[in-house]
């Protein structure tokens, strides 16, 4: 999409083109590179230029912060969910202080992404300073946020290009963790996307732990590497070294992993992944608060609580508020829940988080999670008197406050 002129997209009309696009969502790749970079051939349809058009573009900021590095960096560089600082994989991330700084920056990037990557969303950053999304910078020095409304942000962690989610998690996490733990990391990444504002995008097969046996560019790799197994007997891990052209330089990293049978999920893991993914979709659609339609609604209702320099490492805490008696200035959108808190714990250990601003609420674990097959998430607790949340390792816990009838 980025090679098209912005004016071309604006020129599409019902009268001229015979299509009423009011109910059609348009999105694409808004990368600013190659011959069209920096508007080299006129104003192109890139991320920043699409602001105020309502047209969506893929948010690579949240992808890179969640997973670590970039598609063009070292495949072992870790990110927020893959063990940066909290469970190192042996790759050189610099000093511990540097890894801590990278983890904090990743958290800020993810939180802005979860607020639909809005330029004007105000966040207390990891230094304890209130900043707009447009004032938080990527490692390349460009602003993290580029959107003016939720539809302009397509949040994702994997797509047709590059490794599948399961494959990149298998590369970046330490070799000695269990496949069950890798599956939890996979689910954490998916849950961040599913419960974010904006448009969630999922690569086909993320829900079944799809593997291309680490192939990072499989458009010409045939069914052998692109296979999707809906019998759930296999996720296609370890079917061979991926083709030489785009993968050979990483074969030394791939060989021991692909040859290790402990990396391969069993049917029980795949079925659990499907169940967890469907539960995420059910939770997203259980409340319109997860699908706010305007920038103003997001700015009014979405807050992040584990912020500033003393934050609990590996934890993101997001609340979404609806109109109720105690907040008469806010309209009511959800007839069932008046307040939602989501705690993402990417740490390999149980965490406890206390927030005075979340005291004395009638929060309980979401009924969909209480009925799920994940016994670990069911141990998540909230203590109203202290505003304390306890969430087990590598778990996303959703707490809801039922509306008083």
UniProtKB/TrEMBL annotation:
<dbReference type="Pfam" id="PF11852">
    <property type="entry name" value="Pullul_strch_C"/>
</dbReference>
<feature type="domain" description="Alpha-1,6-glucosidases pullulanase-type C-terminal">
    <location>
        <begin position="232"/>
        <end position="401"/>
    </location>
</feature>
<dbReference type="InterPro" id="IPR024561">
    <property type="entry name" value="Pullul_strch_C"/>
</dbReference>
<dbReference type="InterPro" id="IPR013780">
    <property type="entry name" value="Glyco_hydro_b"/>
</dbReference>
<protein>
    <recommendedName>
        <fullName>Alpha-1,6-glucosidases pullulanase-type C-terminal domain-containing protein</fullName>
    </recommendedName>
</protein>
<dbReference type="InterPro" id="IPR017853">
    <property type="entry name" value="GH"/>
</dbReference>
């Amino acid at each position: 999409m980025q090679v098209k002129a912005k004016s071309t997209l604006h020129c599409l009309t019902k009268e001229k083109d015979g299509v009423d696009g009011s109910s059609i969502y348009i999105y694409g790749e808004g990368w600013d590179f190659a011959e069209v970079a920096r508007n080299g051939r006129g104003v192109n349809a890139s991320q920043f230029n699409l602001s105020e058009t309502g047209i969506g573009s893929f948010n690579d900021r949240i992808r890179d912060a969640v997973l670590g590095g970039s598609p063009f960096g070292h495949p072992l560089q870790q990110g927020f969910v893959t063990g940066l600082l909290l469970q190192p994989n042996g790759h050189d991330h610099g000093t511990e202080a540097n890894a801590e700084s990278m983890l904090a920056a990743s958290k800020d990037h993810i939180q802005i992404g979860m607020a639909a990557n809005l330029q004007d969303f105000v966040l207390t950053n990891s230094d304890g300073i209130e900043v707009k999304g447009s004032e938080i910078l990527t490692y390349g020095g460009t602003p993290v946020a580029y959107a003016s409304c939720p539809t302009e942000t397509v949040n994702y962690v994997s797509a047709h290009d590059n490794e599948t989610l399961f494959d990149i998690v298998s590369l970046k996490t330490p070799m000695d963790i269990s496949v069950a733990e890798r599956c939890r990391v996979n689910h954490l990444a998916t849950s961040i996307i599913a419960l974010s504002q904006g448009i969630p995008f999922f690569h086909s097969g993320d829900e079944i732990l799809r593997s291309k046996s680490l192939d990072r560019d499989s458009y010409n790799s045939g069914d052998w590497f692109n296979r999707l197994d809906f019998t759930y007997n296999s996720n296609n891990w370890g079917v061979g070294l991926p083709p030489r052209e785009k993968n050979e330089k990483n074969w030394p990293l791939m060989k021991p992993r692909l040859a290790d049978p402990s990396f391969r999920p069993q049917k029980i893991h795949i079925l659990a992944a499907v169940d967890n993914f469907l539960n995420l979709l059910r939770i997203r659609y259980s409340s319109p608060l997860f699908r706010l339609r305007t920038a103003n609604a997001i700015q009014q209702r979405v807050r992040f609580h584990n912020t500033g320099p003393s934050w609990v490492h590996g934890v993101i805490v997001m609340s979404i508020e609806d109109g109720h008696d105690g907040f008469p200035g806010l309209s009511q959108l959800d007839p069932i829940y008046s307040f939602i808190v989501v705690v993402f714990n990417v740490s390999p250990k149980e965490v406890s988080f206390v927030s005075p601003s979340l005291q004395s609420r009638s929060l309980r674990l979401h009924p969909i999670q209480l009925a799920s097959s994940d016994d670990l998430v069911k141990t998540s607790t909230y203590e109203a008197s202290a505003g304390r949340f306890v969430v087990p390792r590598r778990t996303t816990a959703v707490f809801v406050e039922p509306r008083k009838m």
